[in-house]
Amino acid sequence: MKKALLVLSVAALSLAALIAPVSAVPATDLGALAEYFPPETPLFFSIRTDTAFIDELDGLIETFRGNLPPGTMPPVSLRQMLEQNLSQQFGEDATLESALPWLGDTAAFGIPTLENLFDDNRANDSVTHAILALEVTDADAAAAMIAEIYEQQGAEVARAQEGEWQLLTPQVPTHTFWAFNDEVALVATSVDLLPLSDDRRSLGRDAGFSALLASLPASDYSAILALNVGDALRESYDLMLASTPNEPAMEMMRSLQPLYDNYPRQIMGFTLLDERTLAIDLAQEAFDYTTLEGPWADNLTPLLQIEPVDLSFAERVPADAPFVYLSTGLGHWTAYMIDVMATTIELGMRASAEVEEDTPAFLAQIDAQDVRAFIDLSFAGMTGLNLQREVLPYLNGTAAIYARALTAGDDQVTVDGAVVVEVTDRDATRHMYDRFVEALTQYEADFEEEDGVLVLPGVIRGLLPADTPRALLQAAELDFLIGVTDEVMAAGTRAAVKHSLNLSGPSLADNPDYQAAQAAFLPDAQTIGYIGFAPVRDLMQMMGRLSNAPDDEVAGVVAFLQTLESAAFSGVIAEDGSSVVRMTLTLAD
User: Fold this and answer.
1) What is the pTM of this model?
2) Are 421 and 402 contacting, i.e. CB atoms less than 8 angstroms apart?
3) 24: closest CA among 58, 52, 62?
4) Rounded to an integer, what distance in angstroms lies between the CA atom of residue 430 and that of residue 110?
């Protein structure tokens, strides 16, 4: 268990390494080295390299180590490990400052092309071209040190001058080409990748990259990662298409081509919002729906602009709920996903009919509208309601989906949770409830009304295995309830629905851990997710006790969880279809 705990700790600290606070700078500073990478670069990563970054990270490591059981992590700092490695080259007194005095404050790594993976030469599939860029304060000193390192290893170094660039080519088996000017040191796996021309095209001069960089919401970052995988997806698509054995399947795949041709570019920024909250911001370009063809163009349209989440809706969630999702536009999202599913089925039926000659004509002619009609008719048959007209339009207010663990019966654990939706039209919502009750009555379903709330005792119990303990089956916590007030409608297990309808007991809005996480949400977020680790720790301890798990295993997991307070995400889709998502991890005090 100690080894597993160490692995978890190292993983957490690897994330922290990207977002140490002292080293945070504007995203545009981290994007400066993009000037030396081609505009089509699939992967570009830039990070701070100043020594303050290392020292701040060591402080974070020490804090993290202090929250773990003694002996879990070795008492070694990152600075010590780096300087120990440097001492092998520069002497035992080497420090980060003395060994690399010419190193600037940023470094960037990029994979400029993936063409080797997709050309006809399979022998070079394992060759990945790359560029490393280091900001320098003294190009001559940097070039001299690099040359000396190679020469001490017995390699000859060819030197040349091309304009402002000093060029070094070590005569070594690995293909390594160096170039230095007053601002940067570059090393590439091919001399053709060195951007030596002043009139070159570059990622840093690309308008799309600059716009994405500017869309990152925080003022400062410690690292950025830009992804432009559209070309790679298109090449992969072409390979799959070439290997598809029959024409119908090829036609179905061709219908997906616009999705690959217009895959949006993305950029991530890593930062620390305060002394405890680590954040990753992800910005993505809009998808161009006008490029869609065939059934996709006929059936898919951009999502309507949806309203921000009403943050006060957290009062409808119990304070100890560890898993919470808040969103608006639930009706819009449901309709959109039905369209995606219906279109996929239409295309699949077309392909199947071409392959299977005995496919019945009515199946071969099924289109997306038929699928939607089937869903609507099925829903109406079960509920007495028209899904498109009487339900989905009234599910676009703020909604919450949450779950937690409760004890039930003879020390048994059960899941408690609910879906809660803001009422935007009282008459329409009451109509939904009444029609559903009529349908239950018509089908002679097992239900009763308890203070105006539907109770369906068999919904959850019917899903449980036959060997479920009798005490648990008899627990009232397993009743499924549906209720409506003038403010919300809720469906779920008993305790959850009672809280959401009546605001009974402490709520998530009062939870200090949630309040701290909420402070980092993006403004006007339309979707929010939250995980509170305190209830998860309690659940782990309870499950360990009930399952008789080894105490040291349970203690190890609980000890790691004690270093964490919460995790969350918040997202915004702009009117133009571009989006930003923030993911946060808040460490415990």
Assistant:
1) 0.86
2) no
3) 52
4) 57
Alpha-helical runs (H) found in 356-455 = 361-364, 368-383, 426-442
pLDDT at 1: 41
Q: How many CB atoms lie within 10 A of CB 442?
A: 9
Instruction: Return the number of other C-beta atoms located less than 10 Å from residue 76's C-beta.
Output: 12
> To which H or E segment does residue 498 belong?
helix 494-502
- Regarding whether 403 and 391 lie in a shared domain, the answer is no
Are 540 and 554 in contact by the 8 Å Cβ rule? The answer is yes
Query: Alpha-carbon distance 488 to 271, whole Å?
Result: 37
Q: At which of 180, 196, 228 does a domain end?
A: 228
Q: What is the Cβ-side half-sphere exposure of residue 73, based on CA atoms within 13 angstroms?
A: 24
Amino acid (1-letter code) at residue 573: I
Q: What span, in angstroms and rounded, lies between the C-alpha atoms of 521 and 519? A: 6
49 and 137 inside one domain: yes
Query: Which two three-digit tokens encode residue 494?
Result: 């008993």
Residue-by-residue DSSP string for 156-223: -EEEEEETTEEEEEE-SSS--EEEE-SSEEEEESSGGGS---TT---GGG-HHHHHHHHH--SS-BSE
Segment 286-337, tens digit of pLDDT: 988 888 888 888 888 887 678 999 999 999 999 999 999 999 999 999 999 9
Q: Are 318 and 369 contained in the same domain? A: no
55 and 94 assigned to the same domain: yes
SS3 label, residue 386: coil
433 belongs to a structural domain: no
Instruction: Say if CB 475 and CB 409 are below 8 A apart.
Output: yes
In a domain, 271, yes or no: no
* Burial class for 486, CB neighbours closer than 10 Å (0-12, 13-18, 19+): exposed
| Structural domain harbouring 370 | 331-395
- Paired strand residues for 248: none
Q: Which residues of 324-350 are buried (b: 16+ CB within 10 A; e: fewer)?
A: bbbbbbbbbbebbebbeebbbbbbebb
Residues whose CB falls within 8 Å of the CB of residue 155, separated by 6 or more in sequence, listed in order: 170, 171, 172
Give the count of domains, the chain: 3
Cβ partners under 8 Å of residue 489, min gap 6: 420, 421, 423, 429, 432, 433, 482, 483
Nearest one of 249, 99, 113, 267 to 192, comparing CA atoms: 113
| Residue 420 and residue 562 share a domain | yes
Same domain flag for 210 and 292: no
Joined tokens for residue 22:
């002292």
Residue 243, domain member (yes or no) = no
How many C-beta neighbours within 10 Å does residue 430 have?
14
Q: What is the pLDDT of residues 386-413, one digit of tens each?
A: 999 999 999 999 999 999 988 755 567 8
* Whether residue 378 is found in the same domain as residue 503: no
Q: Is residue 451 part of a domain?
A: no
CA distance 436 to 423: 17
How far is the C-alpha of 428 from the C-alpha of 315, rounded, in Å? 24
Same domain, 294 and 420: yes
CB 503 within 8 Å of CB 546: no
pLDDT grade, residue 22 (50/70/90)?
very low
416-467 pLDDT, tens digit per residue, is: 999 999 999 999 999 999 999 999 999 888 899 998 899 999 888 888 888 7
Confidence tier at 11 by pLDDT (50, 70, 90): very low
